[in-house]
Amino acid sequence: MAVKKWWGLLIGIGVLATMGVVAQADADYDQALRSAPQGISLDNIFTPGTTSNNQAAVVGTTNPAITGTQAAKVTNGKKQFGALWSTADNFFQLDKNQSASMWLYFGNTGKKAADGMALVFQNDSRDLAATPSFGKTVSGETLGVWGVDTDKRQTTSEKVAQSAIQNSWALEFDTHLNTSTNYGNAGDADSFDVGLKGPHIASNYPGDQDTYEMQRTSTLLPFYSVGYYATQTHNGVINGDYTLLANGSWHHLSLDWRANTQQMTYTFDDKNPITGTDQVGHSATVQLDRKKIDPDDSGQIRWGFTGATGDSYENNLVVFEEVPGLVDAEATATLTNMTTGKTLTDGDVLKSRDAFKLAYQLSYVAGKQSWKDVIAELNLPQNLTYERATITYADGSSNQISLAGLNEQALSYQLTKALSDENATATISLTGVAADVDTPTPVPAVSSAFKAVNGVVTTATPAVTVNPKFDLHLLSLSGNTQTVKPGVDGLVKAQVVIPDGAHLENTDITVHPQLNGTALPDFQMPAGADNSSGQFTMTVPAKLLKAGDNQLTLTVEDPYGNVSNALTHTLTVSRQLVFRSVAEASTFRNVTLTGESQRVKRSGDWRVQVLDTREAGAKWTVQVTSTPFQTARGRRLAGTLSYYDANGPTVINEVPVTVGQGTAADTDVVTDVAADWNEDQGLLLEINSGAAEGTYEGTMTWTLNDVP
Q: CA neighbours within 13 Å on the CB side: how many for 169?
């Protein structure tokens, strides 16, 4: 009896010790609350689960830089179960597109962390009392939502699934790998993560038997025996090393539910925990089966966080930023260069002393509550000088915001009006000028937060650069005009006067030429003798010059977008009337003598081109003479060369005959006299019936006349 009593007392003490574990706040827990990001109050939004072993609680944050923020403490000690659920008025609506965002903290113990926590959506009949069926000991592997695998004789996954939170979908943040696979560990609730290599984020249905798979293992000593352990299927996996989760930092999570496609997208680490600016995170999208999580088709589901720990633990905390349906608000930041009128995006530039406007627009989209008592915590971009600030509401009212409180680019302002359906927007506008700089100066992106106890939104400005503003002056070293002979390139010399302190070399300058209103290819100034002479020569190819006056306009630009004055130079090409091109030799077609007279047509090698660059209206004629056609031995052709036009034939001999004419136009005109003749006009060869066989040649002389 004494022995039985003694063992009963020991067991009783053990149970009391297990049930009475209350984790004490440690340095990491305190640090987490001191560094907590801005979030919302959880009053009447989330509430701890009602199971007797639930250690979750709503706690206050201690960061002096934020206001009205409460955190959900899920677990912070060994052998704990924690669950925090949305209230009945704040169910997640499955029939509507929903978005949510929050900050998560997993402690700072890295590889020693355990076990993580889970974001859970559930329609379990136990409601706020939903919990895994732990038995006597909390299983950290479950993260407070998955099934309990503690029976090595269990051959199917059905009972494992029945021990989980039912009608649920869970997104786990698992800091501790559970990968035991031998017989001695069968049924020890430590095998869900077989196949994974490190901490991870993944999702599935805790109450669905297809989520688990039983694995068989056996041992021969001391006698043959078979056991089973459960592994878990992970969907939408985001893998990482031991810095992914428990690295002592807050991690941002965004959720996006698309009701029409029934897809959930989760994005992790999409905001910088220090600056709050957006960054590229880790994202996955999974397809949800609503029948598994909402079997009664209610269109809504309770949601929250769960956690469980074993012999190791970590501090698991959640700060909610956006809760769907409570207040749906948005914020955007727009930076406009008022000097140019351009809205700036990442990578754009302002010039020194350019005027700008920075506008933060807050928009109330929808919600159960109005967005009230909003505090704008503005982190204003550096290297901009702010002169005036105003706020304008959708109802037309506006107020000036004092800049007296601007301290190191930080400005706090509480909106005097709530935003709601009746007054849905507010725009905070700041105007001023860019800093006066002599070298390119970055204006990094900064994030600002708009905080209220029922909703927090953030937005970031674009990352831009303030470039120096220099007055570049372009001088001509070739005068204002020059005369160029036809066919000769024009050469124009110029010099750029670069202001002192500009730190510019010749090769930093780009020349923008235009000829007669048409842009020519840009080019960089060549290096001068000391690489800072500022001199260059522009060559204008002769083929681009027209007769008469040509206007060459030059500007130069530095790497910072500063453009010089426009320098205009006139190149005058002498006017002329010349043969542009005349064929060296032309032929008539070969013919077969028939004993009868014949008219021989030209071959296709006739070319008599005239270029006239004179003033419009000037006239010209082309005349031709010819020697008699004869063979190499001196036998003359029995026939004549004639010019045919509308008046009939004219014999061509030593007397000049006009065979073409034209008039100068406003543009340079090239006329091919021979090309204007058809087959029965122009120069044709007449041979008589007595012509003898042979090859006959004659010399034709073309004369171009300037007709008064």
A: 21
